[in-house]
Write a structure and sequence with these properties.
Elements lengths: L12 E5 L7 E7 L2 E11 L13 E8 L17 H15 L10 E11 L4 H22 L12 E9 L2 E4 L3 H6 L2 E8 L4 E8 L6 H22 L3
Parallel strand pairs: 4-5
Antiparallel strand pairs: 1-2, 2-3, 3-5, 6-7, 6-8, 8-9
Length: 233
C-alpha cells in the first residue's frame, strides 16, 4: 500500500487559469509535484498540407521538458525533437482533436503548448488536462469576440496514468512509482466515457485480463473526478 494515499486516489490537483497574459488561453497544471504550463494560441489560416476546400480548421500540440524540470538537466530540443517528445505531442494533439468539431473553427489553427517546468510522473496526462482547459478558455474568448459562431467543443476530455506495482493497481503514478511499475498505462477518456486512448504496456511479466479491466475502471473513476474539478474552475 502507498504511504501518502490510497491506491485509487489521485494526487492533489490544481488548475490555475489565465496563468500567462499573452496566450488566448493558459493554465498552470499541478498534479502533485508535476507542474506544466499549458497555453492555447489561435492563428488565422490552416496548415499548408490541408486542402483549401476542406471546411475544417486545425488543432495541433507541442510538448517540451524544460532543462531543470528533471532531477538531472535535460537538453533543450532545439533542432531535432526526440521520439518520446514526438509521441507525447501527437498524443496531446489527437486527444484534444477528439473533443472538438474542427468544422466550427474554419480557417483557424489552434496550437496547444505544454511546457513541463517540474516533472514527477504523469506529464503527458497533466498536459492533456491542462491543454483541454486552455482550449476551453480560448474558445470562450473566440465566441465572445465573434470570431467563431458556435462552440466547437463536443465534450470535456481528461487523462490519467495508472499502473501495476507489487501486483496492486495504482492510480496517478509519480516518477518513483512509474519507474518501478510492472505495467504502465495512460488513459484518455471523454466525459461520457468514450475511449480516446488506452495505452497499456507490460514492462516485464505479462498481466491478466482482469487486471486490465481494473486499470481501466480505476482510471475512469479518476478521470470523472478530474472532470468534476474542471467544472469548479
Amino acid at each position: 500500500m502507498r504511504k501518502d494515499r490510497k491506491n485509487n486516489e489521485l494526487r492533489k490537483i490544481n488548475f490555475i487559469k489565465d496563468f500567462t497574459k499573452n496566450a488566448m488561453g493558459s493554465v498552470l497544471v499541478e498534479f502533485g509535484d508535476t507542474r506544466v504550463i499549458t497555453t492555447a494560441t489561435v492563428e488565422e489560416g490552416k496548415p499548408k498540407w490541408m486542402d483549401k476546400e476542406d471546411p475544417r480548421g486545425w488543432l495541433t500540440a507541442e510538448y517540451s521538458l524544460l532543462p531543470s524540470s528533471t532531477n538531472t538537466r535535460c537538453q533543450r530540443e532545439r533542432t531535432k525533437i526526440s521520439g518520446r517528445t514526438q509521441e507525447i505531442q501527437r498524443l496531446i494533439g489527437r486527444s484534444l482533436r477528439a473533443c472538438i468539431d474542427l468544422e466550427k473553427i474554419p480557417d483557424l489553427t489552434i496550437t496547444i503548448d505544454a511546457d513541463v517546468i517540474q516533472a514527477d510522473g504523469g506529464t503527458r496526462t497533466a498536459s492533456i488536462c491542462g491543454g483541454y482547459l486552455a482550449l476551453k478558455i480560448a474558445v470562450e474568448k473566440l465566441l465572445k469576440e465573434g470570431k467563431i459562431k458556435e462552440n466547437p467543443i463536443i465534450e470535456p476530455v481528461a487523462a490519467i496514468s495508472a499502473g501495476i506495482i507489487d501486483n496492486e493497481v495504482r492510480l496517478d503514478l509519480n516518477y518513483e512509482e512509474d519507474s518501478h511499475a510492472r505495467v504502465d498505462s495512460n488513459i484518455v477518456l471523454t466525459k461520457s466515457g468514450k475511449i480516446i486512448e488506452f495505452q497499456t504496456t507490460a514492462e516485464g511479466e505479462p498481466y491478466e485480463y482482469e487486471q486490465m479491466l481494473q486499470i481501466f475502471n480505476t482510471a475512469k473513476d479518476g478521470i470523472n473526478k478530474i472532470i468534476e474539478i474542471y467544472e469548479t474552475i
